[in-house]
Amino acid sequence: MSDAGPVKSIVTPTHLEYEYTATGAQAEFLRQIGQGRLRGQRCDECGKVYCPPSGACARCGLPTSEWVDVADRGTVSTFCIVRVPSENIEVKLPYCAANIVLDGSDVPFIALLQECEVSEVRIGMRVQAVWRARELWEPTFENIRWFKPSGEPDVPVERLGDWV
Amino acid sequence: MRDVAVLSFAQTPMKRRESGRSEVDMVMSVVREAVAASGIPRREIGFTCSGSSDYIAGQAFAFVGAVDALGAWPPISESHVEMDAAWALYEAWIKIQTGVCDAALCFGFGRASMGTLPETLTLQLEPYTLAPLGIDAIGMAALQARAWLERSGRSERDLAEVAVRSRRDAKQNPFAQLRGDFEVEKLLAEPTLASPLRRHDCAPITDGAAAIVIAAGDVARRAGPRPVWIRGIDHRIEPHHPGVRDLAVSVSTALAAKKAGVDPARIDVAELHAPFTHQEWILREALALPPGVRINPSGGPLAANPMMAAGLVRIGEAAAQVRSGAARRALAHATQGHCLQQNLVCWLEGE
Asked: Is the preceding peptide bond at B196 cis, omega within 30 degrees of 0?
């Protein structure tokens, strides 16, 4: 045994490249958002609208094919205030991450909520998307920078159904 | 032991690149087809197990995404193996043996076209001293091929003949990716990728998915007139470091076959998961298959090799041979890791 001390670390660089191709419902959703439109898919069986759609109803295990328009505004179904930094998120701390149910959709998704004090955020709050400048639109979810309060009256919690 | 049968098998068309359908779309189609063909209602399937690898998708937790295809509401009993889905079937078989459920769904999927498969597979190597050397999966297999050629006294022509037979047989398989008539002479005139292996010695890169439903005795008999019984199943693994193994033989395959109770003299058809031509030879030797046994009538992995599903496809194809009456008994084999490191063997028989 050498007395040179422990080998505490080695560096073994690993690099893999992937060429991802969006397919099916996801590809169409991205094309639409590239045009400034939000669209979802409705399940024939249970009627739930998914936005963004995966091409499947996760509850029924059935393909979804009917496209429906979804608004770029909706309701906060739950939220949290984040006070720890993350490399992936550039906004100032603390910030609000909210589950938002878009009008015309049934399944909330997580989005940033900005342009208000975090202390003002509440379940039932109405919010609207803030799009980036039109000339920057591409087929990416990043076209929506974040959501902000729309100023509409809150939706009473009892009308939020099984979202909360 | 409970009797367990393969009730149904479904697979996607195997493609070099699936650009129209997501993993969820592919899984949903094979799962729905397999469940519908099983003859038992979905609610009677008490366990679901999948085989896939997030390294194939290049996406963390891609395997969880596939749950979207299952209709997991009310929540289902589910598990996943980061292995070929043949091992998902093994887990499901164990679940049935323990009496936790009477019927199970197994599936595997992968879109290997999105990444660089030979490099991705390198990451299976021990990460401190082997993986940094940069040898890829084809180079690893070539080390084994050379060792086997030397020991067996056979030639690269024997390897090419495996490829020619596989792709000729694949002409009868509507799901195969590579099929057609090739000439040994022309193949041997091609350059080597990693000597002694040429392109035809290597399985293609394939996007695809497959699903199988299995069930215990009474449920299987009630489901339909022709259950295909899994008479024996076992899997064995060899040490991780390729240097400590004799690469020219497959001790783990031989042992798995013995533990599964395989009698090679009674096998009519064998579906072997050999992604390289020389590996088919090594497996035939390990399984002591007589010359009359038909190997890979589906075309095998040299005709389509959906990563993480190709082993499960072997079980499905073997079961189909029994169900159609083409074989009384069929053997199916699946492999994992470099140079046949880990091997699963099962054999199937009709009523």
From this structure: yes
Instruction: Domain ranges for chain A, please list them.
Output: 24-156
CA distance B200 to chain A (A): 24
Q: Both tokens of residue B206?
A: 């394939």
- Place A163 in a pLDDT band, splitting at 50, 70 and 90: low
Domain count, chain B: 1
End-to-end CA distance of chain B: 17
Asked if the Cβ–Cβ distance from A12 to B132 is below 8 Å, we say yes
Q: Which residues in chain A have Cβ-Cβ distances shorter than 8 Å to B12? A: none
Does B330 map to a domain? no
Q: Is B290 on the interface with A (CB under 8 A)?
A: no
**Contact list, A16 vs chain B (CB under 8 Å):** 55, 58, 115-116, 119-120, 123
Looking at residue B128, the DSSP 8-state letter turns out to be: T
β-bridge partners, B270: B295, B331
The closest of B102, B333, B99 to B233, measured between CA atoms, is B333
Structure confidence by residue, pLDDT tens digits, B2-17 = 999 999 999 999 999 9
Contacts of B58 in chain A (CB under 8 A): 16, 18, 20
Confidence (pTM): 0.94
Inter-chain contact A24–B21, Cβ cutoff 8 Å?
yes
B259 reaches A (C-beta below 8 A): no
Residue A9 pLDDT > 80: yes
Q: For the segment B271-291, what is each residue's pLDDT rounded down to a tens digit?
A: 999 999 999 999 999 999 999
| ipTM exceeding the 0.90 mark | no
Distance between CA B302 and CA B167 in Å, rounded?
7
CATH number (domain holding residue B107): 3.40.47.10
Distance CA B1, CA A13 (A): 48
Contact list in A for residue B75 (CB cut-off 8 A) is: none
| Structural domain contains residue B59 | yes
Domain assignment of residue B15, given as a range: 4-116+205-223
Is the alpha carbon torsion for B262, B241, B277, B8 positive or negative? positive
Amino acid residing at B20: G
∠ CA B209-B212-B215, nearest 5°, is 165
A126 with A149: CB under 8 angstroms? Answer: yes
Name A68's Cβ contacts closer than 8 Å, sequence gap at least 6: A39, A40, A41, A42, A49, A104
Instruction: Give A12's pLDDT tier (boundaries 50, 70, 90).
Output: confident
**Cα separation, B86 vs B332, whole angstroms:** 10
Give the Cα separation of B41 and B91 in Å (integer): 21
Higher pLDDT, B253 or A54: B253
User: How far, in Å, are A60, A74, A89, B304 from residue A147 at the CA level?
Assistant: 30, 9, 15, 46
Is residue B244 situated within a structural domain?
Answer: no
Task: Look at residue B172 and tell me if it is in a domain.
Answer: no
pLDDT of amino acid A88: 79
Q: Are the Cβ atoms of A20 and B132 closer than 8 angstroms?
A: no
